[in-house]
Amino acid sequence: MKLLHVDASILGAHSVSRAVSAAIVHRLEAETPGVEIIRRDLTAAPLAHLSGGHLAAAAPDADVSAETRAENAEAARALDEFLQADVVVIGAPMYNFSIPSQLKAWIDRVLVAGRTFRYDENGRVVGLAGDKRVIVAVSRGGFYGADTPMAAFEHVETYLKAVFAFIGVPDVEFVVAEGVMAGPGLREKALDAALQDAGRLKAA
């Protein structure tokens, strides 16, 4: 089994989402002998944000700079990592109600027509990545659950559910650390609860 571990937090060792995603990977590794882990840290080695230049480089007669060629090659490696993975674990903190831009750059390189989705003869989307298990470690500074006044501001779980459903993965699993900046002691409480949830995950 191949497991792709993706992190997007800018906080390094102080990151809650990184701590939870690492716990998820550790749990699955313990449950699955021989698992191969592929690591992609989107802060330490960010992918270039998708641009018109990157798209234009695909044209046969395109005049492509060495920088753009290298960026597209790295993006292709990121897509191949995703396609080859059986399980994808993502650390996704909430920044200003949504995902970090580093994670969006990765998603823009993973959602590729003909590779992870296609359109059928009726124009309907067909996901091509439905053979994967996706688990997301989410950290949120406040409280944004479905039963809270701020629920409408939550665009991490909702967005990622839509992204992965589009490419054929309708049942994304979320491990959430909620309210980590909402008051004294809440960070530790939220992290502890999320780590316990991570520890209960099954290999399949």
From TrEMBL:
Flavodoxin-like fold domain sequence ranges: 1-199
Record's keyword annotation contains Oxidoreductase: yes
Record has Flavoprotein as a keyword: yes
UniProt GO molecular function: electron transfer activity; FMN binding; oxidoreductase activity, acting on NAD(P)H as acceptor; oxidoreductase activity, acting on NAD(P)H, quinone or similar compound as acceptor
Organism superkingdom: Bacteria
Principal EC category: oxidoreductase
Co-factor(s): FMN
InterPro entries noted in UniProt: Flavodoxin_fold, Flavoprotein-like_sf, FMN-dep_NADH:Q_OxRdtase_AzoR1, NADH:quinone_OxRdtase_FMN_depd
Catalysed reactions, semicolon-separated: 2 a quinone + NADH + H(+) = 2 a 1,4-benzosemiquinone + NAD(+); N,N-dimethyl-1,4-phenylenediamine + anthranilate + 2 NAD(+) = 2-(4-dimethylaminophenyl)diazenylbenzoate + 2 NADH + 2 H(+)
Residues that span the membrane, as ranges: none
Enzyme Commission code(s) on record: 1.6.5.-, 1.7.1.17
Binding note for cofactor: Binds 1 FMN per subunit.
Keyword tags: Flavoprotein, FMN, NAD, Oxidoreductase
Residues annotated as binding FMN: 9, 15-17, 94-97, 139-142
Role noted for this protein: Also exhibits azoreductase activity. Catalyzes the reductive cleavage of the azo bond in aromatic azo compounds to the corresponding amines.
Family: Belongs to the azoreductase type 1 family.
Assembly and interaction partners: Homodimer.
Protein name (database record): FMN dependent NADH:quinone oxidoreductase
Highest classification ranks of the organism: Bacteria, Pseudomonadati, Pseudomonadota, Alphaproteobacteria, Hyphomicrobiales
